[in-house]
Every structure is written in C-alpha cells, then in structure tokens.
Write a structure and sequence with these properties.
The structure holds two protein chains of two kinds. By secondary structure, chain A is an all-alpha fold. Chain A has twelve helices and two strands. Chain B starts with a strand and ends with a helix.
C-alpha cells in the first residue's frame, strides 16, 4: 500500500503531515503565525529534493553528498534565463530539468564507478566544483546571489507563481507527484533491481543484472527530480545563491531523509517538515540553535533507526503483539 | 560423443607473488557433475571467481559452449547460461524468499527498464518463482524474509535463485558449507535429483557428498591440478591421499 494501512500509528502520522500541508495556508493565519505558510512552502520544495535523494539513497544505497547541486542547477537555469529576459516557463522548466539530467548523467557516470566512501567524496567534489563556479561568475551575482525579477510565466490564466497560494499548491502538487512517481518506480521491475543492488550488488550481477546502468538511470532521475525542487525554489524565493548548492545544503538533505526514514515512501516529507520546522522554531529562541539541533539529530540517528517512519511503524507493531 | 560445455585452458591468476591459479586446465561435459576438491587455500574460490567473471585471469582462456568468454562480464556470462552460487550465502536478506527468486526470473526476461507496473504483483514473475521454490522444498516459506530462514534453508534458496536464471552450467561454490550432516545429506540428495537435468561444476569440502555426486573429480593443490579422473582413481591416487584425503 502507498501509505501502509491508514489506521496505524504510521498511517496516522503520514496523514497528519499531508493534511497539515493541505490546510497550512488557512491554519497559519488562524493561529496567528502567518509566516508558517512560507515555512511550509519552503518545506515542500525541499521535500521534493529529499524525496529524490531518498530514491537513490534509501532504495539504491547511493549516498550522494552533493545532491543539492541539482537544486542549484535547476534554480540557476531559471534565474539565468530570466536574467536574459527569457521568463517563459515552458522553456525554463524543461531546460532546467534537462540540464539537471545531463549533469547527473556526467557526474553519475563517473561517481558510480566507485563505491562507499569514495562515492560520497566524488559526489561531494562535483557539487563543490559547481558551487565554486556559481561563486565565480560575477555576471550572475557571484556570492551575493542572483535576484530573479520575474517568476516563470506560463501564459495560463489564474496561474501566477508570484501569488503565494499558487506557488504553495504548485509545490504541494509537485511534491505529491514525486512521491507517486517514487512509489511506482521502487515497486516496478526497475525498482526491484536497484533495491536488490543496494542489498547485494555482487549477487545481482551474478544473476544477470549489469547494475551500473540501472543505478545510473536512477541517479539521473533523482537529479532531474531535485532540479524541479530548484525551479520551484527560484520561483518562490525569487533568488538563487551559491549557498543553495553548498555542501551544507547537501548534508541537510541527507539529514532530512535519515530523520524521516530512509527507504520509505513518505519518510522524506515528514523528515523535511520536522527538520525545517524544528530549526525554524529553535532559531526563534536562540542564535546558537545549532547547539540544540545537532545533538537532537544525533539522538535520532542513534536511537531511532528508520527515522520517524520506522519509529511509528514500530509503535504499530508493538500494539499488535 | 558427449559435448564439452566448459573448457578451461591454462588459466593463470597471480596475486603478487602468490600464484593462486597455476596453469589450470579442465573441462566439464554435458550433464555431468564435475567436482573440484582441494585443501584450504588451494585456489578453488579464486577459480570460480574467474569462471563467473568476478575477477579477470592473467592469462589463459575460458570457453563456454565453444565460445570464448574470458573477457565477458559477470551479468553477460549469466545470460549465456553460466551461473554461480556463493559459498557465503549471499541472498538478499531483506527481501522475501519469493522476491529473491522472482528477481532471478526477472533477469532472464530481458531488460528491467520498466518503471511503472508493480513487479510484486506480476504473475509472470511470481508463478515461475513459486514453482521453483516448490521444487526445492521452500514452497511454504515464500513470504518469509530470506534473512530469517534457517541456514540450511538459505543454502537451498541460494540454489533456487541460481536455478531460476535457467542455467546451462551451474557453478556451485560449497553448497554444503556450514551444514550439519543431516542437512548436508538432504542437499546431496537434492543435487543428485538435479543430475542429468543440469551440468554442474561443484566445489565442495564434504567428501561424502563429493564422492556420492561426482562423475569426475579434479584435485587442486596450491593452485595446480595434481590429479583428475573418476572418483575411484582419485580415491586410490597416492599423491592426492597425502596432500588431501589423509591416510585413513
């Protein structure tokens, strides 16, 4: 099942998060915390990147430590095209996603020749390479970032991405679409192969799978999906900066996935919500909120194997025993 | 005239100064069980790694059905019909028993760049997989996680997965490894029931099993073939007795 049975702790937890995403634009003003609509828009945009990372990390064992680079490539493509006066979304979006695919193909083709810690280091190196590229081009803002004057224009009536509600629900629909695509993919024949290769690559090769090609395909799909996150981010923030593809951003994505539950369909959404909401709340209390947040994450990794999803799933199991 | 399925010609593999495979030549004929025995460190597993394409030999040739496959990748060898099992059980532990076999069935049905339909509901995968499980006696364990199977059952699953790829030649790397005598006997009986249907190259420590199953035996010591022949000849061979079988 897509969400597991609904009336289990895990099902209820996932339902609550999705319902929160649906009603936040009304809930936030009602409780006098209007900025939460923005927090949730940003959350859902990041969740798309986390979902895509989960596809390769949670289902394919590919721990990419440079996944934010595709947010950057997607976002900068929108920003740079817009800078040159091309704000047509029908051009911007396919081009951004296509470019992410091309870069993921190049980066993946090289990184996937290695395993384990080397794979992590090479993906990190590629991402940092692109980070320094974004810092060095003064025309596009270098480290001050690039202001984006106009959102993507689609020429569709009532569809205006500068409207907060429109971008909110666009992000929501994109996120749900990515979840659904992931769900279909990981349960398909293709998905069984990358999951098998995560479990035991040698075995998969010896029963006849050239696993490299399958893993590379998954890597490219994930890169393109993260590119969508970058496109939305550029439209929502009207700004792209090198920080978007800095290694810390990639590290945050890994944390979102681990916090939510690697290798679960909805896990990355819950992980992203918790990650961003907790950091938002903590940063309101104190400047040095990382001091609290860091140990919190360590505790989750140590004591909640399987993240939030795993935690709620185990609650369900102990009830049935 | 019987047909030679596998021909190994002067295979050499060195690891630094150690010659793990030292000019090994052997052949396997259609429908026979050819066993390779030898003390620990004789280079049996290194040999099987080269035959299955996991490591590359330094020199020599491997011919499978008269086609040279020395440079072929492991997945391509599997598609050609040369399939191995592992000494250390290497099933997918977090997959169910049925999923393990279904994946092997899927591998022989062409490419798996199919992204949309649920594989776990696909009867063209499930049904052949279930049939193979029934055959190896794991039919009622199909929905158990493979990691939760007893050791003997895992070894059977290992064989089931290899069979599901429709092999022409099975490379069995110590199928009795870690089994008690009872389990080992039942595995021996099972392998005997496959005799005639499959050609097998069997690497095994369990001498009772080897002499019960093998049509021919090759003895490997320090990477070299010191003897090769039918079980009776091997049993009598003085060199083999001193090197390996003991004096009893």
């Amino acid at each position: 099942m897509l969400m597991g049975s609904l009336w289990t702790p895990r099902g209820i937890y996932n339902a609550v998060i999705i319902i929160l995403c649906i009603i936040m634009p009304w809930l936030a003003p009602a409780i006098g915390q209007e900025f939460f609509t923005d927090v949730f828009t940003r959350t859902m945009i990041f969740a798309i990147a986390a979902i895509s990372l989960n596809l390769i990390m949670g289902y394919g064992g590919m721990i990419s430590f440079g996944h934010a680079v595709y947010i950057g490539i997607g976002g900068y493509t929108v920003g740079i095209l817009s800078y040159h006066g091309i704000d047509n979304g029908w051009i911007q979006w396919p081009m951004a996603i296509g470019l992410c695919g091309v870069f993921a193909l190049i980066f993946g083709a090289i990184s996937l020749r290695t395993k384990g810690v080397y794979f992590i280091m090479i993906t990190l190196a590629f991402a940092q390479m692109m980070y320094f590229l974004s810092v060095s081009i003064e025309k596009y803002g270098s480290d001050d970032g690039l202001n984006i004057d106009s959102q993507s224009q689609f020429g569709v009536p009532f569809f205006d991405l500068s409207d907060p509600l429109t971008i909110y629900y666009t992000a929501f629909l994109c996120m749900m679409l990515c979840v659904y695509i992931t769900y279909r993919f990981v349960n398909s024949r293709f998905g069984m192969v990358i999951r098998g290769s995560m479990s035991n690559d040698e075995r998969m090769r010896s029963i006849g799978y050239p696993t490299y090609g399958y893993k590379l395909t998954a890597f490219v799909i994930a890169g393109m999906m993260a590119g969508l996150s970058g496109i939305l981010s550029a439209n929502f923030e009207a700004f792209m900066s090198p920080d978007n593809l800095f290694w810390i951003a990639s590290g945050d994505l890994i944390f979102m996935v681990v916090l939510g539950g690697m290798g679960t369909i909805f896990g990355p959404i819950g992980g992203t919500v918790l990650f961003l909401v907790i950091s938002e709340i903590l940063s309101n209390f104190t400047e040095s909120w990382h001091l609290i947040f860091g140990p919190l994450l360590i505790l989750v990794v140590l004591y909640m194997r399987g993240g939030m999803e795993g935690f709620f799933a185990s609650l369900g199991r102990s009830q049935n025993d | 005239m019987t047909k030679t399925v596998l021909k190994v010609d002067n295979l050499v593999k060195r690891f630094g100064g150690l010659v793990a495979t030292d000019h090994v030549s052997l052949d396997v004929e259609q429908n026979e069980i050819h066993a390779i025995i030898g003390p620990n460190g004789a280079g049996k597993t290194t040999l099987i790694h080269q035959l299955s394409g996991m490591i590359e030999p330094d020199s020599g040739a491997i011919l499978f059905n008269d086609v040279e496959i020395t440079q072929l990748s492991a997945p391509s060898r599997c598609h050609a019909g040369l399939v191995r099992s592992f000494q250390i059980t290497s099933i997918l532990k977090n997959f169910t028993v049925l999923d393990n076999v279904a994946l092997a069935v899927q591998a022989r049905q062409g490419h798996s760049f199919r992204f949309w339909k649920a594989a776990q509901k696909d009867q063209t995968l499930r049904q052949p997989a279930q049939e193979i499980l029934d055959e190896v006696g794991l039919g009622d364990r199909s929905h158990v996680l493979a990691g939760n199977l007893a050791h003997g059952e895992q070894r059977r699953l290992e064989i089931a997965v290899a069979l599901a790829t429709s092999p022409k030649l099975l490379l069995l790397d110590e199928p009795m490894a870690g089994m008690d005598s009872e389990a080992s006997e039942s595995m021996t009986a099972y392998l005997r029931s496959l005799k005639g249907k499959y050609t097998m190259l069997l690497i095994e420590h369990d001498m009772d099993a080897v002499f019960a199953l093998a049509d021919r035996i090759t003895v490997l010591v320090y990477g070299q073939v010191i003897a090769s022949g039918i079980p009776e000849e091997i049993r009598k061979n003085a060199e083999v007795r001193s090197a390996y079988l003991g004096d009893d």
